[in-house]
Design goal:
The chain is of the alpha/beta class and 282 residues long. The protein folds into 2 domains: 6-163, HUPs (Rossmann fold); 179-281, Argininosuccinate synthetase, chain A, domain 2 (Alpha-Beta Complex). The chain has 8 helices and 12 strands. The strands form 3 sheets. Strands 3-2-1-4-5 form a 5-stranded parallel sheet, sandwiched between helices. A 4-stranded antiparallel sheet has the order 6-7-12-11, with no helix packed on it. The chain has a 3-stranded antiparallel sheet with strand order 8-9-10, with no helix packed on it. Helix 3 packs across helix 8 and helix 4 (96-110) packs across helix 5. The N and C termini lie far apart (44 Å).
């Protein structure tokens, strides 16, 4: 990875990617461009701009990709009836090609030599990001800090953050014990108590849906209008793709629809227990 002068980083604004940002600056003595995508995760993204600016970033991209995500990725996924191992609706994985595409496009626009991501070395996301990038630009360099650095524990990460004056958000009270990923299609939960396959998820874990026991006794009826295989209106009201999915998530979740709890096979050979909420497409 010699001669790296500029890197485009997939940046969430959280502690891990903020540490990666600083590590890239130190390790490669390079300029870092940040890219933050809004794909419906339900988080305020503008704080990422202030954090990137505080770390000396001059080129900052924060983009709303919700409509493109649903129209060009989620709807084709539905039309193909694509399921991983016959059960999982690919909620996390379907978003990664879009992010990889924008990383490559921004690298081309800014003259960057490489892209970087914060996926760990044991999950599927590293494969999704990197194959997506290589498919679009075979000669692109990809930096995956979690496979390269020696910051192998939470204690080392926190020490690095303190050493370099990276703000540490110490959440208290209702902090979730789970590793979570959200977009307009789904929200996933891993880790914490879920590491024990015999441990039933706590009701408080679920964010988008109620349990069937708590769902209304009266059913809800929706009239869906399709054009060329995609929903274009609900109950006679025309809607854009992102509006469709957002509305269906709310109605279906309120009716106890959309939960999934399974042990799946990861691409790298591990098994992982995950819980998922996909109310809008169940």
């Amino acid at each position: 990875m010699a001669n790296i002068n500029k890197v485009v980083l997939a940046y969430s604004g959280g502690l891990d990617t903020s540490i990666i940002l600083k590590w890239l600056q130190d390790q490669y003595q390079c300029e870092v461009v940040t890219f933050t995508a809004d794909i419906g995760q339900g988080e305020e993204l503008e704080p990422a701009r202030a954090k990137a600016q505080a770390l000396g970033v001059k080129e900052i991209y924060i983009e709303d990709l919700c409509e493109e995500f649903v129209k060009e990725y989620v709807f084709p996924l539905f039309r193909a009836n694509a399921l991983y191992e016959g059960e999982y609706l690919l909620g996390t994985s379907i978003a990664r090609p879009l992010i990889a595409k924008r990383l490559v496009e921004i690298a081309n626009q800014t003259g960057a030599d490489a892209i970087a991501h914060g996926a760990t070395g044991k999950g599927n996301d590293q494969v999704r990001f990197e194959l997506g990038a290589y498919a679009l630009k075979p000669d692109i360099k990809v930096i995956a800090p979690w496979r390269d650095w020696d910051l192998t524990s939470r204690e080392k990460l926190l020490a690095y953050a303190e050493q370099h004056h990276i703000p540490i958000e110490r959440k208290r009270g209702n902090q979730s014990p789970y590793s979570m990923d959200a977009n307009l299609l789904h929200i996933s939960y891993e880790g914490g108590p879920l590491e024990d396959p015999w441990q039933e998820p706590e009701e408080e874990m679920w964010r988008w849906s109620v349990s069937p026991e708590r769902a209304p006794d009266k059913h809800s009826i929706l009239e869906l209008e399709f054009a060329q295989g995609d929903i274009v209106a609900i109950d006679g009201n025309p809607m854009k793709p992102a509006q469709v999915l957002s509305y269906l998530n709310k109605v279906a979740g309120a009716n106890g629809i959309g939960r999934l709890d399974l042990v799946e096979n990861r691409y790298v050979g591990m098994k992982s227990r995950g819980c998922y909420e996909t109310p809008g497409v169940r």
